[in-house]
Design brief:
159 residues; single chain; alpha+beta
Length: 159
């Protein structure tokens, strides 16, 4: 008679136990990874893909805002710098969407040049349907948003 503490003939090898353990882990983790991937794809489909590499407002010495028909203005006020850096988050683009040639030839209506404390410069700009980040043109997910916000925060002709 086998006792509970006596494995007897019902012993499983360590390889079989390891395999069962991995199957259990996969049964729990697999659906979580799939759900996370699905949520990420849905987020990017609804909101667009954000641009990467925005500077920290503390690392920015000044921001120069240039409107197409206006002289450029440079801001060193920390509040204006923070607003300008946060504005980069509205340059969400549509992946795999070609940029209109006409829009690219017209160029940006507004350009922000971020001068960092280490001397580097980053440039963001947009017209009504195309955004530029670090010199690369992208089709905007929400076409008018960036320019409208820029007009409200940094109005042309302000001085």
């Amino acid at each position: 008679m086998n006792k509970p503490w006596d494995a007897g003939d019902n012993r499983e090898g360590p390889q079989r136990r390891r395999k069962k353990l991995w199957q259990r882990i996969l049964a729990v983790v697999g659906p979580m990874v799939l759900a996370g991937g699905l949520v990420t794809v849905c987020f990017f489909a609804m909101n667009g893909v954000p641009v990467w590499g925005a500077p920290n407002p503390k690392d920015v010495a000044s921001v120069t805002v240039a409107w197409a028909e206006d002289p450029s203005r440079t801001y060193t006020d920390p509040e204006k710098i923070e607003l300008a850096v946060k504005l980069i988050n509205k340059l969400n683009y549509q992946p795999f969407t070609p940029v209109s040639e006409a829009s690219e030839q017209v160029g940006p209506d507004v350009t922000f040049t971020y001068t960092l404390k280490d001397g580097r410069e980053l440039t963001a700009g947009a017209n009504w349907i195309t955004g530029w980040w670090k010199g690369e043109a992208r089709a905007l997910k929400t076409p008018d948003l960036f320019v409208n916000l820029a007009e409200g925060l940094f109005p042309p002709g302000e001085g």
